[in-house]
Amino acid sequence: MDAEVSPFFQAFSLLGTPLASILFFLTALIFTACVRPFRGRNWLIAFFGLRLVGATFFLLVNTLLLNRASHGTEHVSWLWIPELMNVLSLYVLTIFVFEVLHDRLRPGQRPPTAILFSFVGRINRAQFWTVSGGQFLLNLGFLALFYGGIGMLLNRRSFDSTDNPFTLAGTISGIFVIYLSWLVVSIWNGLAIAVKRWHDRGKSGWWVLIGLIPIVGPIWALVETGFLPGTRPDSGHRQ
After folding, report:
1. Each residue of 73-105: b (16+ CB within 10 Å) or e?
2. For residue 138, what are the CA distances in angstroms to 6, 26, 141, 191?
3. Which of 99-113, 167-181, 220-234 has the lowest mean pLDDT?
4. 4 to each of 7, 8, 72, 144, 183, how far by Cα in Å?
5. For 150-174, what is each residue's pLDDT tens digit?
6. pTM score over 0.90
7. Where are the domains of the chain?
């Protein structure tokens, strides 16, 4: 005769389930959004939001696909989305911690992360080229690591027809998630510094969209943001 499981143990065992994670992150998100503003609050809201999306998608994937034998590989292929949300949330949490520590050490001063992630304010040409150059080099490094890692993985002789395909798929998915998360952060950084540079030129940040015009747009944007000096701060545009 099987031992009867107490209701307390059943409730406690639910704490580690995706549903419990969803409820926790949803509650934390609502609470953080409703409290009085504090340094880094938006980053903390973004952290809980990303974890909420990741946990929700993970639950949906497991519910809809895991128990369907014909979709076994599809289940694995979709798991990169919640993994991406989790990795991005770690980036966001790191920024939050950095801003809180910076505010403790240097109260009232704008944190350096504002240059990389904020769309408010202005930067000069030197800051623009410094951040853009560093970002370009980091992107090359991540790109080399991504393709190099995938190439080495696919060329390994240990992965033959007798190996578990889920092991290979999971490893490639992990590498893909890391690179994709960095790509998202890189695009965000690029837009943030471009918008602030347009502000320094005395124009709206929406001018960043001019880069979408083929050929002419990128050249115009490069000349404006990379070579022309800034205007007076009282230009009337959002700083």
Report:
1. eebbebbbbbbbbbbbbebbbebbeebbebbee
2. 54, 34, 5, 16
3. 167-181
4. 9, 12, 33, 56, 51
5. 777 666 645 554 455 555 666 677 7
6. no
7. 15-111, 123-230
Q: Which of 45, 38, 56, 54 is nearest to 99 (CA)?
A: 38
Q: Please state, as a whole number, how many other Cβ atoms lie within 10 Å of the Cβ of residue 25.
A: 21
Residue 124 neighbours by CB distance under 10 Å = 13
**Residue 125, both tokens:** 């040409």
Using an 8 Å Cβ cutoff, are 111 and 99 in contact? yes
- Determine the pLDDT at residue 112: 83
What's the alpha-carbon Rg for the chain, to the nearest Å?
23
Chain-centre distance for alpha carbon 123: 23
Q: Are 39 and 100 in contact (CB under 8 A)?
A: yes
Residue 2 pLDDT class (50, 70, 90 cuts): very low
- Angle, CA 201 vertex, CA 125 and CA 109 arms, to 5°: 65
- Residue-wise pLDDT for 9-57, tens only, equals 444 444 457 788 889 999 999 999 999 999 899 999 999 999 999 889 8
Under a CB-based contact definition with an 8 Å cutoff, are residues 193 and 132 in contact? yes
